[in-house]
Structure to design on (587 residues):
């Protein structure tokens, strides 16, 4: 398990779940697809599809899902985007938990938090020991246990080769970032990805706070409005042409 | 649209003031005592009551002038008390302390707190008449007096008393004025009588001293002058006496010369429709409730700085919303399957 971090046979460049490359794998891929779709509510996957339809052509496919504060649905959207990358585009996707101080993705998928990105930052271990398959060709790289403070780990990751190697191996990377205002490392983590995606919780996050968060980013991010539910009766929405919400 | 969103998001808060307004208004109205109204009409002949200087605006109808005078009188304590005593309201209040409490004081829990039970009957009369008696013009010559009271008899009595007391007040004013005229003419007549007697005595004395002078004074300048003076004094006396008699007649007939008369005497009061009052109060409560509700909703809408729709983000931040995720019951967290180690 030494040498190139991605030398493990299970992590070969050709995905066994890529139906275009391996038509004989279509049946397991369909079963896997069903399993993947069952991981999140349909509305979440649909929302993530809408986002990716807008930005999936952008290269490199390195998306960082962030928000202004905690509790806005950042991790859910990150998982959804990773699943849709594989479900709709058949891209091998790695979901990276970059919220080093408050990682949650390993709990969501019931995997160990003992090893992860923080260890890889040291460059001492083979990456295949840390990638865990969620569904289909979607892999999770959890945050791991911090050995030093998060800013220093992030700096090490920014300068190291782990992320470029991940980018080479996978078709798409989806980062679950810390919140921009709710974490001291939010902005530094967002700089590690090419395309930040801003999650805003409908009816919860004050817009001035969202503005402060988005202003801190170097580019205006696409926004995912999460938890939308119109209180208007259907007939009013029909009458006002606001049927979608 | 945001206002509508707020409205439907806080349905209970939006409806509560309306229901509360309805209930409070209905409860308030139900707590009010039964009341009766009685109406009477006055035919107004003169623009001004008697020779009063009140309401001398000749560009206004006689009924309007008199209406203003009656309303003015109703603001005076002595007039109100006289009406109360004449119409039976004073006796009723004496027998039923606090029995005509209205407004908030009529509500059982607030009666002791707000009622004027410690106020004298006179004070209660003044307070009640200020709100329970109205005077309106029915036309250029007719004034309508309407009184509301706790019983049918009190309502009719009060309306009648207002008219009668007004007539009394006008008559008193007229009497005072006429009395002055009688006194004046009486003095004038007395002086004139003395002057006449003096002139007569002078003439008689002159005639007695000058028996050759004919009775008509022909040929004698002094006799002629004295006769003329006596005649003038007699004429003056007669004239003043006539004016004095006229003044006395006017004084005696003052009650028939007040400038108005009752054409429809107030009849026994009719009960005020409870349903109508309840509907009116309900409508008012509803209106107030709706206004309060709209104010609350407007305040909530203004205070809510969060986004509910893509348009909110676009408008406030200038950012494009690439996707929307509907709210999922129990949150948006997905299932938690076991991951597979690579």
């Amino acid at each position: 398990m030494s040498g190139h971090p991605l030398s493990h046979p299970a992590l070969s460049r050709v995905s066994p779940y890529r139906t275009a490359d391996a038509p004989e794998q279509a049946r397991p891929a369909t079963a896997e697809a069903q399993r993947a779709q069952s991981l999140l509510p349909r509305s979440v996957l649909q929302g993530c599809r809408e986002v990716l339809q807008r930005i999936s052509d952008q290269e490199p496919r390195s998306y960082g899902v962030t928000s202004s504060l905690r509790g806005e649905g950042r991790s859910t959207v990150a998982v959804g985007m990773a699943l849709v990358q594989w479900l709709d585009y058949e891209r091998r996707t790695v979901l990276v938990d970059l919220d080093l101080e408050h990682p949650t993705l390993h709990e969501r998928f019931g995997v160990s938090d003992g090893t992860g990105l923080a260890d890889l930052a040291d460059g001492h271990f083979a990456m295949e020991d840390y990638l865990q398959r969620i569904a289909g060709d979607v892999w999770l790289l959890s945050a791991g246990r911090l050995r030093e403070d998060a800013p220093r780990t992030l700096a090490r990751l920014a300068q190291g080769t782990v992320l470029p190697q991940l980018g080479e191996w996978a078709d798409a990377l989806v980062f679950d970032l810390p919140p921009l205002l709710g974490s001291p490392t939010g902005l530094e983590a967002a700089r590690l990805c090419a395309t930040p995606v801003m999650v805003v919780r409908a009816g919860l996050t004050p817009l001035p706070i969202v503005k402060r968060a988005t202003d801190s980013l170097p580019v205006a991010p696409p926004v995912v409005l999460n938890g939308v539910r119109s209180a208007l009766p259907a007939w009013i929405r029909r009458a006002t042409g606001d049927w979608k919400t | 649209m945001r206002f509508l969103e707020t409205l439907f998001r806080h349905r209970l808060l939006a409806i509560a003031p309306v229901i509360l307004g309805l209930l409070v208004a209905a409860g308030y109205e139900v707590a009010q005592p039964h009341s009766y109204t009685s109406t009477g009409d006055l035919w107004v002949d003169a623009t001004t009551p008697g020779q009063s200087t009140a309401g001398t605006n000749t560009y206004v109808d006689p009924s309007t002038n008199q209406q203003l005078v009656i309303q003015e009188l109703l603001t005076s304590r002595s007039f109100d008390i006289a009406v109360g005593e004449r119409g039976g309201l004073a006796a009723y209040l004496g027998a039923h302390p606090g029995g005509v409490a209205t407004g908030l004081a009529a509500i059982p829990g607030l009666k002791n707190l707000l009622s004027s039970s410690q106020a004298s009957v006179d004070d209660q009369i003044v307070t009640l008449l200020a709100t329970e008696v109205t005077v309106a013009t029915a036309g250029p010559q007719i004034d309508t007096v309407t009184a509301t009271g706790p019983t049918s008899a009190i309502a009719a009595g009060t309306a009648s008393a207002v008219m009668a007391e007004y007539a009394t007040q006008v008559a008193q004013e007229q009497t005072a004025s006429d009395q002055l005229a009688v006194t004046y003419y009486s003095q004038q007549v007395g002086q004139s009588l003395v002057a006449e007697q003096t002139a007569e005595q002078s003439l008689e004395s002159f005639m007695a001293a000058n028996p050759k002078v004919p009775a008509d004074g022909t040929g004698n300048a002094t006799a002629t002058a004295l006769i003329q003076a006596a005649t003038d004094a007699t004429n003056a006396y007669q004239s003043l006496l006539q004016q004095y008699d006229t003044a006395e007649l006017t004084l005696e007939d003052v009650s028939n010369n007040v400038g108005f008369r009752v054409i429809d005497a107030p009849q026994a009061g009719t009960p005020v429709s409870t349903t109508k009052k309840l509907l009116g109060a309900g409508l008012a409560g509803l209106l107030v409730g709706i206004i309060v509700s709209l104010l609350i909703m407007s305040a909530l809408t203004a205070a809510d700085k969060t986004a509910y729709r893509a348009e909110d983000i676009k408008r406030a931040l200038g950012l494009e919303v690439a996707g929307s995720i509907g709210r999922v019951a129990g949150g948006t967290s997905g299932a938690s399957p076991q991951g597979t180690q690579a």
Summary: Confidence is low (pLDDT under 50) at residues 1-10, 12-28 of chain A.
